[in-house]
Amino acid sequence: MMRKLKDDVLLCLIYLAAFFAEFLLIGILVYVFVKGFPHISLHFLTTVTSVLEGTVGIAGNIVNTIYMVVLTLVIAVPVGIGSAIYLNEYARPGKIVRLIEFTTQTLSGIPSIIFGLFGMVFFGVTLGLGYSILTGALTLSLMVLPLITRNTQEALKTVPESYTSGAIGMGAGKWYVIRTILLPSAMPGIVTGIILAVGRILGESAALLFTAGSGYFLPRSLGGWFHKMVESGGTLTIQLYLSMEKAQYDTAFAIAVVLLGMVLGMNLLTRFFIRKIETAKFTDAGGE
Amino acid sequence: MPQSKISTEKLNLYYGAKHALKDITIRIRSNMVTALIGPSGCGKSTFLKSLNRMNELTDGARTEGKVYLDGEDIYGSGMDVTRLRKRVGMVFQQPNPFPMTIYDNIAYGPKVHGVRNKEKLDGIVERSLRQAAIWEEVENQLNRTAMGLSGGQKQRLCIARALAVEPEVLLMDEPTSALDPVSTLKVEELIGQLKGKYTIVIVTHNMQQAARVSDDTAFFLMGEMVEFDTTARLFVHPADRRTQEYITGKFG
């Protein structure tokens, strides 16, 4: 009798906890959406803020965000995947590999403001890149590198050894096996790492404030689109922070909605993408 | 007597301090099936892997002695491992098709060795699948993933994959131990069909299988080759007491 009561009480508590967690998440989403959505308009999305005309727009920040994501990934993905391949497939297991793995893990726990400080001083001042999207992207690359490396490593570890020996047994060289068997098989895990990285890039403010600055203009000429990389540029998150600082809460919430939309859209896209790879490889795609 | 395709001379193999193969000297006849039998851990799989240098993938493995393929030392400095493994193909215990289409599985080996021509690849794929007696079952689903095949089909696919690079020798490491009886029978039949064209070395736990499919049999025990003879003689008149005890089921 007593035991039954205990079970019921515990069950209730578990349900309550689950409900609370869900409720918080959905509550925040709904709140942000309700507050922000009415302030989103085509004008808001496609123009930049003009003090003269007194209008507010985030087109520049959207472009900056895209630049930041793409540029960071262009730098961090090859390096991250490359180091994961090295650590898993080439390096002799031992102290040095463990030390590198420990360091990468620690690196991922460092507060982002410290990356910002380092990026500003090293990339901005020492390398002379100043406040620019490039400085920001280099800084963020350091931040997301552990994410990509670790996820790639884990994904590579799950590829069955039998694939490798099968390929090697046919005379394939190591790099050939990595390229044709290991990387394709590990792709879902690698993509997951990249998505997590994009999430961090989208959400980052502290590390970018001191490195990429807060510019919000659109390039005026074709060359400007290239030059943009070495110009100051604030991402949506930075702009959100700045808007809040100026107590422009309507704008802030509108940006928040756009950001949430981007994150959601990306998650859906990835899920679709990963499912597509998996069906192509592991199940009978044609059906019976 | 047909000439020997592979022969070893005082082959010794160590895993670190463990002496896994002791002074193995054997002559494997061309276009015959040679079975390697013995209890688990006796070194038969290790020996098999030393014939195409797959043992080198194990950390701390060290080989001494000679292995000749058509008279050429495969551990010699002039031997290119890629070429060696093209000539000496391998089929594993667990069917291990790659997570790709059936077509790409078969075309994988030829691509490793530089075949790019689509028509040529098409021809190789069909020929290999026919040789492995699985063509009829898969000809309409070449572009489907190989992961959807049954265990027995997967193993025959792996045999086809090995045949696609036109090897001279086929090493089979307990190729039917993960298969059901019907699939086992199909693979055994296939071995019978292939032996005219290829030299086959098969490791097996199953003595009936060794008796059914092989011409010669070698009995391994604790890293030593106890006895090597024609299958007919070894199973009927084993020379060594240990061989007799093993094949009559006293141990192992």
Q: How would you portray this structure in words?
A:
The complex is a heterodimer of chains A (288) and B (252). By secondary structure, chain A is mainly alpha-helical. Chain A has helices at 2-36, 42-46, 59-90, 95-107, 112-126, 133-157, 161-168, 174-203, 206-209, 222-227, 236-245, 249-282; strands spanning 48-50, 55-58. The radius of gyration of chain A is 23 Å and the shape is globular. Residues 284-288 of chain A have low confidence and may be disordered. Helix content of chain B is 36%, strand content 27%. By secondary structure, chain B is an alpha/beta fold. In chain B, α3 (102-112) packs across α4, α4 crosses α6 and α6 packs parallel to α7 (181-194). Chain B has helices at residues 44-50, 81-87, 102-112, 118-131, 135-138, 151-163, 181-194, 207-213, 231-236, 241-247, and strands at residues 4-15, 18-29, 33-37, 61-69, 72-73, 88-91, 169-173, 199-203, 216-221, 224-230. The A-B interface holds A 160, 162-163, 165-173, 176, 180-181, 184-185, 280-286 and B 52, 54, 57, 81-86, 89-90, 92, 94, 96-100, 108-109, 112-113, 141, 143-145, 147-148, 158, 161-162, 165.
Task: Set out the fold topology.
The complex is a heterodimer of chains A (288) and B (252).
Chain A: H1 2-36, H2 42-46, E1 48-50, E2 55-58, H3 59-90, H4 95-107, H5 112-126, H6 133-157, H7 161-168, H8 174-203, H9 206-209, H10 222-227, H11 236-245, H12 249-282
Antiparallel strand pairs in A: 1-2
Chain B: E1 4-15, E2 18-29, E3 33-37, H1 44-50, E4 61-69, E5 72-73, H2 81-87, E6 88-91, H3 102-112, H4 118-131, H5 135-138, H6 151-163, E7 169-173, H7 181-194, E8 199-203, H8 207-213, E9 216-221, E10 224-230, H9 231-236, H10 241-247
Parallel strand pairs in B: 3-8, 3-9, 6-7, 7-8
Antiparallel strand pairs in B: 1-2, 1-4, 4-5, 9-10
Helix pairs in contact in B: 3-4, 3-6, 4-6, 6-7
